Amino acid sequence: MTQNTHDSDTAFIAALAALLTSNDLTEIEVTRSSGDDNMLNVRVSRQMTAAPVQAPAPVQHVVAAPAVAAPAPVSSDPSSLPGVVASPMVGTVYLQAEPGTPAFVTVGAQVAEGQTILIIEAMKTMNQIPAPRAGTVKRILVEDGRPVEYGAPLMIIE
Amino acid sequence: MTDWPAGYGRIVLDEVTSTMTAAALRVADAPLWVLARRQTAAKGRRGRVWHMPAGNFAASLVMRPGDAPAQLALRSFVAALALRDALALHVAALALKWPNDVLLAGDKVAGILLESTGGALIIGIGVNLAAAPAPDAVEPGALRPTALADHGVTVTPEDFLTPLAAAFAQWEARFVRDGFDPIRTAWLAHAARLGEQITARTPRDTFTGRFDTVDSAGNLVLATATGRITLPAADVHF
């Protein structure tokens, strides 16, 4: 297990923990597989004393991923939580097609399966990331111009 | 005389908004090179204007490699090597700037832009053949633009395309057969400023350090005062 893998795993778990809090969940369990011999199984949970009051949810931001990016595993899909869109690659996130234009999606927006929800840039390649399913954008978990890790939660679409 | 590579289509259009857009409309015909004599709204990275004086080269290749996104992005290096080969038929003093800039005597002679969407990858290549944009037309801090004509070379876009397409087909076949390693090795052999101090800017940060290498995932590796960093996306400045 390399240091990079360790850092990547730590970031992934931290992101899950943030999701747990931001969505008032009590438990998340996820298995991430990136190769035959590289499997990460995580369960994060917390104790809840009372049901949270439902309030209009602000956009939640995951703590910025470290600028030091781990090499990306190049094959296999990250496993995904229900509703969570995981990053298929390491890179820089852009929420608009180009500076000064409207965001691809906003919280509350309806999206169709395959619709572009953001761009991740790596090696000067602008990768349009599609919505894996139709639904409503519940949360945007990344900030424009920030680095993301492989498997990092990008959005929640339900 | 180079032959057109087998398996690749080719169309030449008089005028398009941009070759990227024109190529995106022709995914069904991939792999296909779309050459345009004029672009009315050519773009660079992140919405930057790409200036295209008459007689310059603008073409986009649309392909469907069927790879994962991280693998698609490595075509940046494949395209840079192919463009370097095509330029090397006319000029020397070529060098590569991470990840895909080809420099002529240290100046910017070309630009490469890649977009992936829905399984298609579109690689746009612009080359200043006849004329470079005016220096005040480019962003402050950007490399000085140059053109092949400034180096005494005259070549038409159509004549430039064939060896470029052939070189791309060769490097692409190598990449598909042997993976990124030989691409990385060839790229590093032509890298500018390897082992020297460079600056890499991301939208949020600026890193300065010694350009150590490009890693097996294509990341830029810098040795900085605070340690070794690897960057999948950044603007490199010398």
Helix and strand arrangement:
The complex is a heterodimer of chains A (158) and B (238).
Chain A: H1 3-22, E1 27-33, E2 39-45, E3 84-86, E4 91-94, E5 110-111, E6 116-122, E7 125-130, E8 135-140, E9 147-148, E10 153-157
Antiparallel strand pairs in A: 1-2, 3-10, 4-6, 4-9, 5-8, 6-7, 8-10
Chain B: E1 9-16, H1 19-24, E2 32-39, E3 57-63, H2 69-73, H3 75-88, E4 94-97, E5 101-104, E6 107-108, E7 110-117, E8 120-127, H4 157-178, H5 180-189, E9 197-201, E10 206-214, E11 220-224, E12 227-231, E13 235-237
Parallel strand pairs in B: 1-2
Antiparallel strand pairs in B: 2-3, 3-8, 4-5, 5-6, 7-8, 9-10, 9-13, 10-11, 11-12
Helix pairs in contact in B: 3-4, 3-5, 4-5
How would you describe what is shown here?
The complex is a heterodimer of chains A (158) and B (238). With 158 residues, chain A is of the alpha+beta class. Chain A has one helix at residues 3-22; strands at residues 27-33, 39-45, 84-86, 91-94, 110-111, 116-122, 125-130, 135-140, 147-148, 153-157. Helices cover 13% and strands 31% of the residues of chain A. A four-stranded antiparallel sheet of chain A has the order 3-10-8-5, covered by helices on one side. Chain A starts with a helix and ends with a strand. Chain B is built from five helices and 13 strands. The N and C termini of chain B lie far apart (37 Å). In chain B, strands 1-2-3-8-7 form a five-stranded mixed sheet. Chain B has helices at 19-24, 69-73, 75-88, 157-178, 180-189; strands spanning 9-16, 32-39, 57-63, 94-97, 101-104, 107-108, 110-117, 120-127, 197-201, 206-214, 220-224, 227-231, 235-237. Chain B is α+β, with helices and mostly antiparallel strands and 238 residues long. Chain B is 24% helix and 32% strand. Chain B has two domains: 9-188, BirA Bifunctional Protein, domain 2; 197-237, SH3 type barrels. Classes of the chains: A alpha+beta (158), B alpha+beta (238). Chains A and B meet through strand 4, strand 6 and strand 7 of A and helix 2, helix 3, strand 7 and strand 12 of B.
